[in-house]
Structures are given as structure tokens and as C-alpha cells.
Design a protein that fits this description.
1% strand, Lines homolog 1, disordered N terminus, Protein_Lines, mainly alpha, two-stranded antiparallel ribbon, Lines_C, 59% helix, two-stranded parallel ribbon
């Protein structure tokens, strides 16, 4: 009997190894499928151990006694029993791991499109037999609760694949799994079983999102409908109580991580697949999840929540696991818009109650190869910039969403007075040197200096706030005291659009090729932001000129270097026009435009001409992604034109309506002519628009825009621009006309 048991255990491992090699190669299962059922049953290893326990006891004792006799020592019965149990447990553990690995491989072969059809039929039949004969789902749920983390992980992986298989094959979802999840998610948010449920559900949802060929909305609805009320109960249990009331904080941290991931998947299914369930609205309508930002929990969990809120407000939830992006032109979702407003209001209310005061963003030093600072290295302390950027963006975005649904200018001004000072107070200790020594509008470029997509989203939201506040103004009239006071507040509260644009240009060294890279790329919202700003620039030209004066004066007073990366050539090249001059006396307020008619004729005084070259030295110019000054188009470019047009179609469809009002221009049709290169501007000596180190912000800005205009013309002539730039060129031409009148 003892010999038979040992042969049986060895045979199990041998058969499982043979099956592993076949499945690994994707081979057809030609043998009897039912013969594999016994060996893939997770109960087999435990039964074998129990059987061998009574039979092999004397055999193990004989072996140990023989070893002890050779060395003249005796083995205690307790030591014999311990060695026997370790041997049996180790063998059972290995067999179970191999079984789970094989089950997961079989399911992967069934779900893979690369598996040969005949082999896939055999794997599918084997899976169905496992479900029917041994109730594989129930066995996996039991192993899922095992204290061994590796066994639990593999069981969760198998269970997720099994549930996804049931959804793909249009089968009934496992009743034992539904009952297990409903029980543990409703009972307590601290239990380890709840974490297992959340992890498995999240894994299944990710697999559904990845599969572009299945009926994803129907599969998700079948998966989530049984848990719609359960999720809401778990949400309330997790977020509605104080952290000190939890008995097991370590399990709560795991629950928070898993549930935040599940919340992101729920919101993503709403945006991408137009699925409508109550649980998808929890984060929007029940904002007490924000309370965890004040809990004594690890910073990475707070960061995860802030980033999730940022993705929700930007409608970018699910970009990490969805293959396709949200289409720009889609039918409006008024229910989602109202939920966005509710989330924005809740966030602003929490900010007013001191949310950012309670949020700490401690940074961790970046250490190559470890988490300790090596001797002799200086520790660089700083904030967690990821959390800081996300918190900043959701604050500005929440104000934008609120103002989009507000018609009272008085109410909007009151909200700005209430929220922005608190927000800037939150930023000041995080930024070194402090914003107190600089223009508060600089916060945006300093916070988002390492993340251009978030920076442009924040700039666009800030511009939208300004446009909502000034939509009733008549920009053609002179500035009234009320307007001057409000423009003063735009600087003081850090959302003046012209300052923000100038800081943006300064960060890219006023390089037009960087702007061109942003315009061609579809990875940021720069095109939408740039079009809106150019429209504002033509209407608000006087304010822009005054802002340029203030910008130059601010740099001079603060001792900030304004060195121009494009040095001026020698005098006497050709004529140019002159930057406007406005008086800046000791009593002049640097926050308010110096004159309402800043674009009027300049004061008569001797002028000194400084012609400006169109291109600076390559060694001192930030390198662009593409060489846009390439040679003339070759014959190959002409023959490849239809292919270029086909590639441009998809990108053009994603552009905002401002750029799509004209058809795509082609060769043979009338084109706009490239403006002739000419000296751009000259600066008056001793004016706020000039300095000894280079040209002033106004001159550099206009030159940058004109270089951009010429680059777009060149690409359009070669049929290389990815969409119709006619509306964009029209706006740039309008700015050029404004400069001609200066």
C-alpha cells in the first residue's frame, strides 16, 4: 500500500508535466480529456497527502531511525512527525501550484485568437468539463482564501480568466462567485476576502476592455449588474467612517487601493462604453471619498485618489487600459455633465473647508539604485510633484466646470475671491523660491514644468475662466476703473491669460518650432488652447501690450534673467516697426495696464532700429522634434501625396471645430501665400520693451508667432500639415495685422 501511494504521487507530477509541455506549445489534446480531470482537481494534492499520512508514517520513521542509527543518535517522535509533515506539505504545495498554472494556461489558450482552431476546441471542452464535473469555480474560491500568497495569487488569476471565459462564451456567471462577493463586500470593508473580490473583478474588467472584438458593453453589464447595490454599500462602509474606527488598518489600505482601481474602471465603462449603472456615479454624487486625503494613510493612496479625480474631470479615465481614446465629436451626455458639476462643487466646497491644508505632499528623494542617500551626496528635499500637479489641475478645472454652468458674473467673482487665494497659499510653501517674489501667474508654468499635457490643460481651463468672466465686456472701449481693478485681480490671483502665455513662451525659449511640434501632435490640447488664445489676443490687444510691459518690468525688478536666445545682428539691415512705449514711473502700478489705449501711436522720440534674424544659432536654439526647414519637395513627395492625405484624415477628425471650418487644401487648388520674411520689430531705447541683454517679451512673442506662421505655410505648400490650417493661419495673420498698426 505504501508503494502504491508513492507511485501515485510521482505519477501525478509526471502527467502534469507532460500536459504542461503540450499546452505550452499549443498542441492538440488527443488523449482522453476526462483523464486529465482527476489530475487538474485542486483537491487531489490534499487527498493524496491525507492518504499518505496514515500509510507513510511508519516509512518515514524507518528512514529517520536508520539515519540516526548510523550516527549513534536517536530521533524524537516529535522531530519525526515534523519532518514528515514538512515533506508532505511541500509536495502538496508544488502539485497545487502546477495545477493552477496549467488551468490558467488552458484558459489563456481558449481565449487567445492565435490558438489553432482544433486545439482551441479541445481546450474549451476541457474547461467546460472542469466546470461541470468538479465545480472548478468553487475550488478556486477556496484556494483564493489560502494564507499562502502565491497560491492565492494564482487562484485569483485563474478565477479571473474563468469568469472572463464565461462572459465570452455567453454562459451564466458563476453563482458561487456572485454569492461569495456579495457576502464579503456587504459584511465588512476590512476583510481580506473583500480585497480578493475587488482584485478579481478589476482583473476581469481589464480583460473586457482589452478585447476590442467582443460585445464589451454587454459583458460588463452581465458582470456588474449583480454587484451594483453591493458596490454602493461597500463604498459607504469604506468612506463614511473615521479612520480610527477601523480595527485592521493594513487591510483598509489594501481595500482602498483595490477599490480606487475598481472605481476608475467603473467610470471608464461609463465614458467609453456608455454603460449606465448606479455604482458608476458613486464618486460623483457621494464625494466623502475626499475625506481620505486627511487620513493618516500612505501618500501613494492619496496620490491615486487625486489622480483619479483629475482623470474624471478631464474625461480621461481608462486611457491606461483602453486601446482607443474617447472620440472628440460624440453625442452630449447631460447626465455625465451634471455629475461632473456635482463633483466639481464638492471638491471646491472641500477646498474651502481646508482640504489642501490637510493634504501633505512630502517628496521622496530620487536615489539611483535604491532608497537611501549615499554618503557624500546631498539630499534634495521637495514636494511630491505628481500630487501637486494633480491637485492644482483639479482645482482650476473645477472652477472652469462651475463657471460653465454659472450665469452670474458676481457669483463667479466671489468664487474666485474665495478659492484662488487658498489655492495659492497651498502652493507657496511647495515652490521654492516662493511665489511671493514673482508674478503669481507664474505658478502654472512652475508647477507643470515637467508635464506639458497637464500644463496645457491647466492653461486652457484658466483661459476659459477668464473668458467667462469677461464675456460681457466690450473690449473696444477704454478701460474703466472697474475693469482696471479686475485686471489687477487677474494678476494677483494668478490667472491672467497673457502672463500665462508669456511664461509658457519663456519656458520654451520663444522657439516657434516647439509650438509647431505641439500643433502637429495630438497628445495635448495645445491646438484648442492656442486657437482660443489667439482669438482673445486680437480682442484684448491693449491688455496684452500692457502685460508685456509689466512682464518686462517684473523681470527687471526681480533680477530675473531675460537673456534672449536669439541675439540681434548688427544695425542697419532694414526697416522694422517699433514696440509701443508706455510710461512706467515710480507711482505706476505694475499690476494694472498703464493706458487704456496702449495700442495707440507711440510717443515721438528718436528710434533705433534693431533688425531681427529669422533663425538663431542652432547651438543655442532648443532642438525641435522635426527639421521643418527641410529641402524642397522631391518627386517622391508628390507621388506619396494620396498616402499623406489618408494619414491626415484621422487626426483632422479629432481637431476642434475652429480648425475644421474649411476643407483640406490640396495641390492644384488655391493656397495662401507664405508671408515674406522681413525684419520683425525694433525696440526703443530706455523703454520697458527693451533691455541690454536682448529683445523684450513683446518683440520675442511677435517674432515667435511670425516664424510659426511661415513654418505652417511651408508645410502646407508641401502638403505635410496634418489638418487644414486655414483658420489658424487667419488668426496668426490677424495678430500680424495688429503688430503692423503698433
Amino acid at each position: 500500500m505504501r508503494y502504491i501511494v508513492e507511485i501515485k504521487m510521482e505519477s501525478v507530477q509526471e502527467i502534469l508535466d507532460h500536459l504542461y509541455r503540450k499546452v505550452l506549445l499549443g498542441a492538440t489534446l488527443e488523449d482522453d480529456l476526462h483523464g486529465y480531470i482527476v489530475y487538474l482537481n485542486p483537491d487531489l494534492s490534499e487527498q493524496a497527502v491525507c492518504t499518505a499520512s496514515s500509510v507513510a508514517r511508519s516509512d518515514v520513521r524507518d528512514v529517520l531511525d536508520g539515519m540516526a542509527g548510523q550516527h549513534g543518535v536517536s530521533i524524537l517522535p516529535e522531530a519525526q512527525e515534523c519532518s514528515r509533515r514538512q515533506l508532505q506539505t511541500g509536495r502538496a504545495w508544488e502539485v497545487t501550484l502546477l495545477q493552477l498554472t496549467l488551468i490558467d494556461m488552458v484558459l489563456s489558450r481558449v481565449l487567445s485568437a492565435e490558438t489553432e482552431s482544433r486545439a482551441k476546441a479541445g481546450y474549451r471542452e476541457l474547461t467546460e468539463v472542469l466546470l461541470q464535473s468538479i465545480e472548478l469555480d468553487s475550488k478556486l474560491i477556496r484556494v483564493l482564501q489560502n494564507s499562502d500568497k502565491l497560491l492565492s495569487y494564482l487562484a485569483a488569476k485563474c478565477l479571473a480568466s474563468l469568469l472572463y471565459f464565461q462572459l465570452r462564451e455567453k454562459k451564466m456567471l458563476s453563482n458561487s462567485w456572485v454569492t461569495f462577493c456579495q457576502k464579503h463586500l456587504s459584511d465588512s470593508s476590512e476583510g481580506g476576502e473583500a480585497v480578493h473580490c475587488l482584485c478579481v473583478l478589476a482583473a476581469v474588467m481589464k480583460e473586457i476592455f482589452k478585447d476590442a472584438h467582443s460585445q464589451r458593453a454587454e459583458s460588463l453589464k452581465q458582470l456588474l449588474t449583480p454587484f451594483d447595490n453591493t458596490f454602493e454599500a461597500f463604498y459607504n462602509s469604506l468612506f463614511s467612517q473615521h479612520f480610527g474606527n477601523f480595527k485592521n488598518p493594513s487591510n483598509i489600505i489594501s481595500s482602498l487601493m483595490c477599490f480606487l482601481e475598481l472605481l476608475e474602471l467603473l467610470v471608464a465603462s461609463r465614458i467609453h462604453l456608455k454603460l449606465h449603472l448606479r455604482s458608476q456615479r458613486m464618486l460623483f454624487l457621494k464625494p466623502h471619498a475626499l475625506d481620505i486625503l486627511a487620513w493618516p494613510i500612505p501618500a501613494f493612496i492619496k496620490r491615486k485618489l487625486v489622480i483619479l479625480i483629475k482623470k474624471c474631470l478631464l474625461c480621461k479615465v481608462g486611457e491606461d487600459f483602453c486601446r482607443e481614446s474617447v472620440p472628440t465629436l460624440m453625442s452630449p451626455d447631460h447626465l455625465l455633465d451634471s455629475d461632473m458639476l456635482a463633483l466639481a462643487d464638492a471638491l471646491l466646497h472641500a477646498i474651502h473647508l481646508g482640504l489642501w491644508k490637510a493634504l501633505t505632499v512630502p517628496g521622496k528623494p530620487s536615489c539611483f539604485g535604491g532608497d537611501e542617500v549615499q554618503p557624500g551626496c546631498r539630499l534634495r528635499a521637495g514636494p511630491d510633484h505628481v500630487t501637486l500637479r494633480a491637485a492644482s489641475l483639479i482645482t482650476v478645472k473645477s472652477l472652469e466646470i462651475k463657471f460653465q454652468n454659472c450665469t452670474s458674473a458676481t457669483e463667479m467673482k466671489a468664487d474666485l475671491q474665495k478659492f484662488l487665494p487658498e489655492f495659492l497659499a497651498f502652493l507657496k510653501p511647495q515652490l521654492q523660491p516662493s511665489l511671493q517674489l514673482h508674478n503669481p501667474c507664474e505658478w502654472l508654468s512652475r508647477v507643470f514644468i515637467e508635464q506639458d499635457d497637464d500644463m496645457l490643460e491647466a492653461a486652457k481651463a484658466s483661459l476659459s475662466i477668464y473668458l467667462h468672466l469677461t464675456r460681457e465686456w466690450d473690449t473696444s472701449t477704454s478701460l474703466t476703473p472697474e475693469k482696471e481693478a479686475w485686471i489687477h485681480s487677474t494678476h494677483g490671483h494668478g490667472y491672467n491669460p497673457h502672463c500665462i502665455f508669456l511664461f509658457f513662451l519663456k519656458n520654451i525659449a520663444f522657439d516657434s518650432t516647439v509650438l509647431l511640434d505641439f500643433l502637429i501632435s495630438s497628445e495635448t490640447c495645445f491646438l484648442e488652447y492656442f486657437v482660443k488664445y489667439l482669438k482673445l489676443l486680437q480682442k484684448d490687444w491693449g491688455h496684452f501690450l500692457s502685460t508685456c510691459q509689466f512682464f518686462a518690468a517684473m523681470e527687471s525688478q526681480c533680477g530675473v534673467s531675460v537673456h534672449d536666445p536669439f541675439p540681434l545682428p548688427a544695425h542697419g539691415t532694414s526697416t522694422s516697426y517699433t514696440a509701443p512705449h508706455a510710461p512706467v514711473g515710480e507711482n505706476a502700478c505694475p499690476w494694472i495696464p498703464w493706458a487704456a489705449d496702449a495700442s495707440s501711436e507711440p510717443q515721438s522720440q528718436p528710434k533705433e532700429t534693431h533688425p531681427v534674424p529669422t533663425n538663431g544659432p542652432p547651438s543655442r536654439t532648443p532642438q525641435s522634434l522635426v527639421d521643418y526647414d527641410s529641402s524642397e519637395p522631391s518627386d517622391e513627395e508628390a507621388t506619396d501625396e494620396p498616402l499623406a492625405n489618408s494619414k491626415q484624415t484621422s487626426l483632422c477628425q479629432e481637431m476642434p471645430g475652429e480648425i475644421q471650418d474649411l476643407p483640406r487644401t490640396c495641390k492644384g487648388k488655391e493656397r495662401s501665400r507664405e508671408p515674406q520674411a522681413r525684419p520683425l520689430l525694433s525696440a526703443e531705447p530706455n523703454s520697458p520693451f527693451s533691455d541690454d541683454g536682448g529683445v523684450a517679451p513683446f518683440l520675442r512673442t511677435v517674432r515667435c508667432l511670425e516664424e510659426l506662421q511661415r513654418a505652417i505655410y511651408r508645410l502646407q505648400e508641401k502638403n505635410l500639415f496634418p489638418y487644414n490650417p486655414a483658420a489658424l493661419l487667419k488668426l496668426l495673420k490677424g495678430v500680424e495685422a495688429k503688430c503692423d498698426n503698433v
